[in-house]
Amino acid sequence: MNNYYDEIIKPEKIKQQLEKAEYEKCIIRDFDINAAILSGYVFIDCVFDGCNLSLCKLHQTALRNVIFKNCKLLGMKWDECQSFMFSVHFENSNLDMSNFYGLRLKKSKFISCSLKEVDFTEADMMDAILDDCDCSGAVFDQTNLTNADLSTSQQYIINPTQNNVKNSKFSWPAASGLLVNFGVKIT
Question: Whole-model pTM?
Answer without folding.
Answer: 0.91
